[in-house]
Amino acid sequence: MIMKNYDVLLEKLAPRKFGKRGTIWVIFLSIIIVLGLIAYIDQVKKGQIVTNMRDYALWGIYISNFVFFVATSFVGSVTVAILRLTNNTWRTPLVRIAEIITFASIVMAGLTIMIDMGRPDRLLNLFIHARLQSPITWDVIIIPTTIALSFLLLYFPLLPDLAILKKFYKKTKPKLSKWYGKISLNWTGSERQKSIQEKSIKIIAVLIIPVSIMLQTIDAWLFSTTYRIGWDSTNMGAYFISGAFVAGLGALVTMVYVIRKVRGLDYYITEYHFDKLGKFLALACLTYLYFNINEYLIPIFTAPVEEDIHLNSLVFGEWAPIFWFAQIVGLLLPLVILLFRKGRHPKPMLFVGLMVVIGSWWKRYIIVIPTLLHPFLPIEGVPESWHHYFPSAHEWIITFATLAMALLIITLFVRYLPVVPIQRTADEKNTTGIKKNKES
Amino acid sequence: MKNRLKHPLVFFVFIGIFLATGQRAFYAQNTKKHTVRLKMDYTKIMDSVSYLYIKAFSRVDRENIDVPNIDLTVYNEIDNETIELGSVKTNVSGECKFVLKNFNTITSDSSSNFNLQVKFNGNELYKKASKSISFRDASIETNLITKDSVNYVRAILKDSETDSVLSDQLVQVQVQRLFKPLKIGKEFNMTDENGTILVPVDSDIPGINGQLIIEVILADNDDYGTVKALVNAPIGTPIIEESTFDNRTMWSTRNKTPLFLLIFPNLLIFGIWGIIVYLLVNLFKISKS
Predict the structure, then answer these.
(1) Report field, pTM of the whole predicted structure over 0.80
(2) How many Cβ atoms sit within 10 Å of the Cβ of residue A58?
C-alpha cells in the first residue's frame, strides 16, 4: 500500500512536459525577452540617451526594478530558513518554489544592475577599482554572494529528488535520466551522504538569514547613505527588510497558486497551506505598515521645508496616484482581506498575491524616482522635460523583458525540477500517518 | 541653379550681403591708419629680474581699444648711441612684459639715467609709434629685526649710482597673500633722513610653516620707477593643515579606506565565502561517497 502511494506521489510530483498552454506561455515570454534584447542592444549602441533618465532622474525604472528583484529574493530566507529554524512543517510543499523564486530574482537583480550601467563593458572596473567606503561596492559583493548561497539553498535539498527522478525516467526517458543522474552527484541516500547534506542545509539555513538581511540593508543603504530628501532616514534598513518580506511572500503566494493550478497539486498544497501563508503574509503586511508609518508619518511632524515639499508631492501632488495605489492596493487592502478566514482561501489569496506584487513594484518606483526630482538646489537651466521622469519605450521594454526572464527561469525550473520536494513529502506523509494513528 | 532661381529674392539678398561685407573689407585697406599709444612702466625686483611693462592701445571712435599682436622693439639710449635690447609682442589685451634678466645689460648715460625706448614700426592698420622712459637705479636693503619680542622689517632706500640714502620717500610694506597683498605698518611709511623705514609685523599673520613673504615697495616713483624687495620672514603663525586628504576617511581614495571598513567587511566576506567554499567541498564529498 505504501509502495503504491509512493508511486502515485512520484507520478504526481515528477516534472512534466509543457502542455499547449505551457508552450504558449514560454513562447510569449521568449518574444518579450527577444524584444527586450533588441531594445538593450539599441541602448548599448546609442547610449542611455534612449532612456528618459537625465541629470536629475539619473536612476529610473531599472533601479526601481532592481530593488523589486532584490526584495522578492528575500522569500527564500523567510520561508525556507526561518520556517525551518522554527520547525514549521507546513513549509514542505512551498520551500522549493520559494527557493526557485529567490534564485531567479537575485540573478535578475544582478542583470538589471548591468542594464542600468551606461558602459556595461566596464563592469569589471566595479571590482578592480572597488572602494569599500562605497555602498555600490557592498552591493557588488553581496549580490554574487547571495546568488551563490541561494543556488546552494536550492541545490542541496534537490539531490535526493534528482536521484529519484534519475530512476523514475530510466526506462521512459533515458537521456533525461542521465542528466538527472549527473546533477544528482551520484546520490544513493547513504548515511554519509545524508549526514553531509543535512549538515550543509542547516548551515545554509542559518547563513542565508544574515546574508539576506545584509542584502536588503545594503540595498536600503544605497539610498540612505546619500544625503537626499526621502532617503536620508535611519529607518531605511528595517523598512526595506519588512518591504522585502511582503514582496517575497506576495510573489510566493501568486506562484504557489499558479503552479498548484497548472500542475494539479491540490492534494499536496492544500487550503491549510494557503491559510498559513495568508497569516504569514498578514504578519508581514502589519510589520511593513508599522515601518511605513515610521517612514511617512513621523516626518510630517519634523520635516524641514524640502522634506515637506517632497512629502506633499507624494501624498497630495503629482506622485499621489502611484503612492496611494502602492499603499492601498499593495499593503492595506491585502492586509484587510487576509485578516478574514475567507480571504485566506486559495482564490482570494491569488488576488492578494497579485496586488502585493504589483503594489510592491510600484512602491519601489515611488521610493527611487520622486526623491531624485527633489534636489536641495532648485532645478534650473535645464529643459522642461528634465523636471519630470517617465520611462521611455526602451526602458519599459527592457524592464518587461527582465520580468519575463525571471518568469522564464521559474517556468524552466518548474518544468525540469520537482516543485514539491518528493523525498521529503514521502517521508512526511509516512510520519504524518503514524502521528495521526497515534493521535486517533 | 534651378533651385536658386526659384527664390531670386533670397539669392539677391545673399549676394547683396556678401558684396556689402566684402566691400567693407576692401575699404579697410584704404582706411586711415590709427595711432598707437604706448604706456610703459619700469619695475625692478631686488636680487631678481627687472622688466618693462608695456601696454599698447589706440583711440578709435572715441574709445580706447587694446592693440594686440604687434611687435615692439626695445632700445637702450646712451647719449647719442642706441642699442637694441630685444623685441616683444603684445598679447590679446595689448600688454607685454620685456624682461631684463640681467640689469648689467643696460647702460646709463652721462647723467646716470637709464633711458629705454620702445618702438613700434607700424603696420597696415596702425602708424609707427615710440615711447621712452628714463629712470635712475635705486636699491632697497631689507632685514628683519626683533625688539622687545616684536618683529620689525627694516628697509633702507638708496640711489645705487651715488650710494646715497633717499629720504622722504613713500614706501609700501605688505605681506603676500593669495588674492591681494595685506598692507602692514602705517598708512604712509616715509623714509627718514637715513632713508630707513621700520615697520612692525604682527605675529598672528598666518603663513605656510610660518613663512611670510614681505614686500617692500617704492611704487611708481618719478625718478626710480618701481623698486621691490622681497623678504622671507619665518615669523608668521604656521597654518595648521585641516585637510583630511591624507587620512583614512569615508570620502578618501581606496588605498586610504578606514581600517574598520577594511577589517570587518573583509572578515564577513571571507567568512561567508569560506563557508560557501566549504559547502561546495561538501557537494564534492557527496558525489564521491
Answers:
(1) no
(2) 12
